[in-house]
Specification:
The protein is 72% helix and 0% strand. With 316 residues, the protein is mostly helical.
Length: 316
């Protein structure tokens, strides 16, 4: 990934500047649509995978396979030298991969065994707020609008997590998602401040393999292999896993990485408040997930906070 890392980090990534009045090309809108829809649908995919697959082992398989495929594509298109890194760069990529994909995505997969996919996406939308907090802690001054967005986001988070307001959702699952957002934010924030591989695709491949191995080790440590049989996995769980590998971890990431070099970061970052809407709609349409008024209210407040943060960064 690093999927979503730069955009969630507010201004920690860089994108090609766009001159005032310059029209956004059709290719940019097409790539943005892929990121909007595909990443918004990954929450639904995860929910279907964990119906019959153990959470951490399925996440481990997803990221290891996707990372190896991406590494092969990098070597094929750019030559084996594109994968060369120093030990420090490899260690940095592994740390970021563990934070993002084990701590961030792995915990989300675990949480989705009890939390609806739409609610999960709404909770994760608060990530840009955590990144603003981290930036301030390290001496940056994000701006008054960003601080207001943080307060809005945290207020929405409070509504989403208050016991008794989210129906039958287990509180431990909601808190697990919140921990995952913090881990993802730390990984996103760190990726621009430690010596990473120069090639972003190679870096992402190493991150996915490291994060996938970490997820698998946690899965084995939790004993997820006991009582698990491949012949008991449903066909739709296999399809969902394949979808996450091919579209979630490869197609959408490629579109996202291209966008970072071809579109304003402020435009790319809009995925942060579009993905939750897509996830809620798909969860309701396909899985029949209920959209209660606390979830709708809390989600709207979170998305408003993220919108304020992104809008503030766009003016800076």
């Amino acid at each position: 990934m690093t999927q979503r890392a730069a955009a969630t980090a507010g201004t920690s990534g860089t994108a090609a500047p766009t001159a005032p009045g310059r029209r956004i090309s059709g290719a940019v809108w097409a790539a943005l649509a892929i990121v909007y829809v595909v990443w918004g649908s990954t929450y639904l995919g995860i929910r279907i995978v964990v119906e019959t697959m153990p959470p951490f082992l399925s996440a481990g398989a997803r990221f290891v396979v996707a990372g190896l495929i991406l590494a092969g594509l990098v070597a094929w298109r750019q030559g084996p030298s594109a994968l060369k890194v120093t030990r420090v760069q490899l260690a940095s990529a592994a740390v970021v991969g563990l934070l993002l994909l084990l701590g961030g995505n792995g915990l989300v997969v675990l949480a989705e065994t009890s939390v609806p996919s739409g609610l999960t996406a709404l909770l994760i939308a608060v990530v840009p707020a955590w990144v603003v907090v981290l930036r301030r802690a390290f001496g940056e001054r994000p701006g008054l609008g960003a601080y207001s967005g943080v307060l809005l986001g945290l207020g929405g988070l409070a509504v989403l997590t208050l016991p008794g307001l989210s129906g039958d959702v287990r509180l431990w699952g909601v808190l697990t998602v919140i921990v995952a957002t913090v881990m993802w934010s730390v990984g996103s924030f760190s990726s621009s401040r430690i010596p990473m591989p120069a090639n972003p695709f190679a870096a992402s491949a190493y991150e996915m393999v490291a994060g996938g191995i970490g997820c698998a080790l946690v899965g084995f440590g939790r004993g997820e292999q006991y009582g698990f049989a491949l012949d008991e996995v449903s066909g739709r769980s296999w399809v969902a896993l394949a979808y996450l590998i091919v579209f979630g971890s490869l197609v959408a990431f490629t579109a996202y990485a291209w966008l970072l070099h071809s579109a304003p970061l402020s435009l790319v970052a809009t995925y942060a408040y579009v993905n939750p809407v897509v996830a809620v709609l798909l969860g309701g349409l396909i899985l029949g997930e209920e959209l209660s008024w606390p979830i709708a209210l809390g989600g709207a407040v979170v998305v408003a906070g993220v919108f304020l943060i992104v809008s503030t960064e766009r003016r800076r």
